[in-house]
Amino acid sequence: MRNIDQILDLLESEPAHQVSSPKGLPELPEGFSLPADVVKFYERFGESILNEESETGAWARVVTPEEFNRIDAAIMGGERFASGPFENWFALVDVEDGNYIAIDLSVEHQGKCLDAFRETFAIPSYVDVVAASFTDLLNRFLDHKEDTAFWLDEAFESLGEAFGMYGIEPAEE
Fold first, then answer.
1. Distance between CA 11 and CA 31 in Å, rounded?
2. pLDDT digits (tens, 9 = 90+) for 148-163
3. CATH superfamily ID and name for 4-166
4. Which of 73, 80, 89, 104 has the highest CB neighbour number within 10 Å of its CB?
């Protein structure tokens, strides 16, 4: 697996990926900090489009520091939930159509990346952990050559369920 420095070099050198100049670090609420690999990314780039020239449809965009917001606000146009783990989850990668990969910034789960599908991101048992870290996430994006997102591939094995990490069980039907 490539380290974050190798990935950043690859994003900058390969024509399939686009990067922009740095725009500073995302502003975070008090008590939160960014994982070291995310800091390295934003110190070097303002955003990045992965697989821009891909025919596989596996396009993704690491958001700008200004767009690095709570996932509920990002998906719902500024609206926020009053409770739940959402205060810890931030939009990191735009995967089109209002869907994101979020990153958990809680101390206990810092860096875990989550599938934040706009229609199910607020429902326990529907939010998979898709990568252990930002570096892991970028490696998975860069290595996946299929026509779907890597976490939608039949062979993908979830790293857990995000609400479950917080002890939140799905509601009984």
1. 31
2. 889 998 999 999 999 9
3. SMI1/KNR4-like (3.40.1580.10)
4. 89
